[in-house]
Amino acid sequence: MSLALQTDSKGRLRHFLTVEGLPRSLLTEILDNAERFTGVGERAVKKVPLLRGKTVINLFFEPSTRTRTTFDLAAKRLSADVMNISIETSSAKKGESLADTLRNLEAMHTDMFVVRHQSSGAPFYIAQQVGPEVSVINGGDGRHSHPTQAMLDAFTIRRVKGGFDGLSVAIVGDIAHSRVARSEIHALRTLGVSDLRAVGPRTLVPTGIEAMGATPYYDMEEGIRGCDVIVMLRLQQERMDSALLPSAHEYFQLYGLTQQRLKLAKRDVTVMHPGPINRGIEIESAVADGSQSVILQQVTHGIAVRMAVMAMCMGNQAEAGE
Ligand code: NCD
Predict the structure, then answer these.
(1) Which residues, at least 6 apart from 69, have a Cβ–Cβ distance to it below 8 Å?
(2) Which residues does ligand 1 sit against, CB inside 6 Å?
(3) Domains of the chain as residue ranges with CATH
(4) In this structure, what is the dihedral angle of CA atoms 62, 65, 70, 72, given to the nearest 10 degrees?
(5) Are the beta carbons of 305 and 45 closer than 8 angstroms?
(6) Residue-wise pLDDT tens digits, 169-217
(7) In angstroms, what is the span from residue 180 Cα to ligand 1's centroid?
(8) Which of 115, 180, 283 to mutate for ligand 1's pocket (most ligand atoms within 8 Å of CB)?
(9) What are 229-288's pLDDT values in tens digits?
(10) Which ligand 1 atom is the nearest neighbour of the CA of 236?
């Protein structure tokens, strides 16, 4: 179902809603196209004309810094006309339904919607409603999926490590509420990471994680031992219904990534975080800002990966060289 909704009859990307169910070839194509787009951001004139004349609407029903601005920049660097709509200023606040908001925005001949929504499944619903020429990209839905974040993380890993085979990757923290973790597990498994670990307290590592392809670890030190890559996650307190944790201080004692703990991983371990980071809760400042951290490179890569996805959904394969 997810593959059928996301691709056209020739297997090309039409919407990007979830990584789950997409073949390795398509994920690799996104990474290869992103590789070609990275150069665009380094030029004096940071633009290619692939989406000239197209209208992109960023529809954000939830707060965002990195995702919204990098989608905005990605669209602009592809020469699209881009509008940013956030819930604070939209008529959804006046009681308009999602379907009605959408019909109105579609009436403006929008070609692409980038949607972030607090409800899991909202971008899927939108993709089913829009006309055949319109593409929908998921910018994060509830705790379900965040496919472009997963792909920019995969892109960062491939750039730093040269590939995925033989890597040990630990995703650490609040896995239960994390759409990033869910999408990342699907992406990294599909791309060939065989040792994928989900590390965190029992209350925050969902049951069934093994079925998704990750091995649960409830002890931080065991979980990161010998790893090539550590992906730290924020405690998503806004999604926790009850006290699943003793205290932030105790959490840091047990699961915080410190310089001391980092020594348990491989010497050339790479530290990642999708942001926003909470210093002193899941990660020590010295590690977040240290030489093994690629947290800001992830942000830079987010633009190229989002350009690749947008160009592919609009039927343009990357031609960043022109
Ligand atoms: C994440 C998100 O919103 O899912 N951040 C992001 O997109 N860079 C993770 C988070 O909020 O902790």
Answers:
(1) none
(2) 66-67, 140, 146, 149, 179-180, 234, 236, 274-275
(3) 2-144+301-313 (3.40.50.1370), 147-299 (3.40.50.1370)
(4) 60
(5) no
(6) 999 999 999 999 999 999 999 999 999 999 999 999 999 999 999 999 9
(7) 7
(8) 180
(9) 999 999 887 777 666 777 888 999 999 999 999 999 999 999 999 999 999 999 999 999
(10) 12
Distance 67 CA to ligand 1 centre (A): 8
Euclidean distance between CA atoms 120 and 116, whole angstroms: 10
Closest listed residue to residue 265, CA positions, set 232, 225, 218, 219: 225
- The H or E element that residue 84 is part of is strand 81-86
Which numbered atom of ligand 1 lies nearest the CA of 149? 7
Ligand 1: centre distance to CA 106 (Å): 27
Asked if residues 135 and 15 have their Cβ atoms less than 8 Å apart, the reply is yes
